[in-house]
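Anyone up for a design puzzle?
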């Protein structure tokens, strides 16, 4: 391959540090159209890999799109990356929300440190399957309410509707906002550390 005379990475891509030797995996799950692709894209330090495809008439009656003005959909998974420290990187996998792709979830959960369940309070029932599968796999998780405008319910009402145990963190977020998305991930890592009874030993990276 010909050299362009520069060692700089392509625009929009951050090189992985040569010292990184510990990869952590987190999965973002939830119902169709709750903002999983948006969350992964907003926090990733690299240009995220996504498998968004334009929705067509072939999906009518299968994918519930029209109600929310959604024109594209994830057909495999989203992928992003965040550097936590000199040696640790976090890989983010966003799972597709449509029922016909749920068979992929069990594979995505394999090896995951934990998960974020993203919920839309207008369709809380769409989150039940995600919570059920995570509990089945014994994968620790937190729940993040993605706010589409002013919340119509309190977090306690959401907790009650989802039948969440008190030890499962429930937080607010705006999936479009990078800082908000990072706070969700930090909350998940704190939750995992608390479950393990271990102090945090990495540097939080916000760059």
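Challenge accepted. My sequence:
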């Amino acid at each position: 391959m010909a050299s362009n005379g520069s060692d700089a990475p392509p625009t929009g891509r951050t090189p992985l540090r040569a010292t990184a030797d510990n990869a952590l995996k987190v999965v973002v799950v939830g119902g169709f159209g709750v903002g999983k692709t948006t969350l992964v894209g907003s926090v990733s330090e690299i240009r995220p890999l996504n498998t968004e495809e334009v929705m067509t008439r072939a999906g009518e009656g299968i994918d519930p799109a029209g109600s929310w003005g959604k024109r594209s959909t994830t057909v495999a998974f989203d992928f992003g990356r965040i550097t936590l420290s000199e040696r640790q990187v976090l890989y983010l996998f966003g799972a597709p929300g449509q029922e016909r792709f749920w068979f992929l979830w069990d594979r995505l959960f394999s090896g995951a440190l934990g998960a974020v369940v993203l919920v839309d309070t207008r369709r809380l029932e769409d989150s039940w399957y995600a919570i059920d599968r995570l509990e089945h796999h014994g994968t620790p998780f937190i729940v993040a309410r993605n706010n589409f405008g002013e919340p119509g319910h309190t977090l306690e009402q959401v907790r009650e509707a989802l039948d969440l145990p008190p030890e499962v963190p429930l937080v607010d977020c705006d999936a479009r906002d990078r800082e908000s998305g990072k706070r969700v991930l930090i909350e998940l890592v704190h939750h995992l550390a608390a479950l393990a009874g271990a102090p945090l030993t990495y540097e939080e990276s916000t760059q």
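A detail worth pointing out: The first helix runs from residue 36 to 43.
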